[in-house]
Design goal:
Layout: H1 2-5, E1 6-8, E2 29-31, H2 33-40, H3 42-54, H4 61-77, H5 84-109, H6 117-134, H7 139-164, H8 168-187, E3 192-194, H9 200-206, E4 208-209, H10 212-239, H11 247-269, E5 274-275, H12 276-294, H13 296-306, H14 308-313, H15 318-344, E6 346-348, H16 356-366, H17 378-398, H18 402-429
Antiparallel strand pairs: 1-2, 3-6, 4-5
């Protein structure tokens, strides 16, 4: 069996002349560590997990542990924290910031920053409100124009950064100020425009599927899709002769996905049902996760984050990718801003202001996206947004001032950056970066 799992350094490739010759005395046998892991069974996975931790590959482990600690602490303080109503509201409240953070993830993977997303979200909200409420435009048309405005602003930033060469920090900092001023100008002297409570936008975060079959059906669909995707991917890798996951591991991973999926479905059904906002949010996250991990475009984004010069020499159009990433960031900022307006049922002068920008960036970083570029997932934004909203929700239940919430969120953000920095240094020391 070992002949199928390893190859001696210096051996000719299979099929070449002399490939049946025995290895030279003292030669070192190289074995794919993933194959060793699967040979050793459960112990192999534990050893592999320990190896990854020692080499700085922590993944989402610190964030998941942090979420558990936050939940335990606030539950002891107030038994309503893990109640169906509070957790339901927590998830819905996290969608707006989470959507903006998803766009930030793409920018951070490039190794850049976008400081304008808060103001862009406010401009999009103001444009929608003025067109729909003041000028009577149909909601769906106003929504499209509002999202397009975010995309155009993002492309504007990307052009100055990628084509002109102005640092992204400076361009988006100017955008933070300029677009906030434009938002105030668009809203006019009143400063606040109330939205239709029965309208399409309002329903995005206020509509619930009361039929319990919807939540459980979506959970079942997610589990089946995960198993099918993992199984087919494993079969393709096996046919190609590269390391693949055995069926037992796929089943175990599917169970790990199924437990929280059905738990969340049960949780939602114990309040009002499955929120429409969660479905829309997951569609964006899953879709952009596919783009980032499964398409050539996503690989080009990661390549630029790793080394711009290497990407350029590989034939990647650096300018086009950079402009597209900032366009995506502006688009997601507009969509996230509309979600927040849906919760408030209004567009006002505080739209996109306050802590929204910092929370969106913090969500991406806390979730595991590296500030140094080259590493991140859209799911990082989801986990990070949940951490921030979990802290905010717990503070509100305890009646603690927002000033303390800012300090705690800042401390969590600092801890996430420190972990990222230490992890990178550890990986370099271990030769894995």
């Amino acid at each position: 069996m070992s002949a199928n799992l390893s190859r001696t350094e210096g051996d000719p490739v299979e099929g070449a002349a002399g490939s049946d010759a025995p290895p030279a005395e003292g030669a070192v046998t190289v074995v794919d560590p993933r194959l060793l892991v699967r040979q050793q069974g459960f112990k192999g996975y534990l050893d592999d997990f320990g190896r990854k931790v020692r080499s700085g590959e922590l993944g989402s482990l610190p964030v998941v542990v942090g979420l558990i600690i936050i939940a335990i602490v606030f539950q002891f303080q107030n038994s309503a924290y893990l109640g169906a109503e509070n957790l339901n509201n927590l998830f819905v409240d996290a969608t707006g910031t989470g959507l903006i953070a998803v766009g930030i993830v793409f920018v951070l993977i490039l190794g850049e920053i976008d400081l304008s997303v808060g103001s862009v979200s406010g401009v999009a909200t103001a444009i929608f409100a003025v067109l729909n409420v003041n000028h009577g435009m149909a909601e769906w048309q106003a929504l499209i124009l509002a999202v397009l405005s975010g995309a155009l602003i993002g492309a504007f930033h990307g052009f100055f950064f990628a084509r002109i060469g102005v640092p992204a920090f400076v361009v988006t900092l100017a955008g933070l100020l300029g677009w906030n001023g434009l938002m105030l100008q668009v809203l006019g002297s009143s400063g606040t425009i109330n939205l239709d409570r029965d309208g399409l936008l309002s329903q995005i975060t206020n509509y619930y599927f009361s039929d319990i079959a919807v939540a459980y059906g979506l959970a079942l669909l997610a589990v089946i899709a995960y198993f099918a995707t993992s199984f087919l991917d494993s079969r393709r890798r096996e046919a190609a002769g590269v390391p693949s996951r055995p069926l037992s591991e796929i089943v175990l991973r599917t169970v790990v996905v199924a437990v929280p999926s059905f738990l969340l479905a049960w949780l939602f059904n114990n309040f009002k049902g499955l929120p429409l906002a969660i479905i829309v949010f997951l569609v964006f996250v899953i879709g952009l996760d596919f783009v980032l991990r499964r398409t050539s475009y996503g690989r080009k984004v990661f390549a630029l984050g790793g080394s711009v010069e290497a990407a350029r020499r590989a034939g990647i159009n650096v300018v086009a990718i950079r402009v597209s990433v900032f366009t995506l960031s502006g688009t997601m900022a507009a969509i996230g801003g509309l979600f927040i307006a849906s919760q408030l049922n209004a567009a006002n002068q505080s739209s996109g202001a306050g802590s929204l920008l910092m929370n969106a960036i913090a969500a991406a970083v806390i979730g595991g996206t590296s500030l140094f570029g080259g590493r991140g997932k859209t799911w990082s934004a989801v986990i990070g947004a949940l951490v921030i909203q979990s802290i905010a929700s717990g503070m509100q239940l305890q009646g603690i001032a927002s000033a303390v919430q800012y300090m705690i969120t800042g401390a969590v953000l600092l801890a996430a950056v420190v972990i990222d920095s230490v992890s990178r240094k550890t990986q370099k020391t271990a030769g894995r970066a």
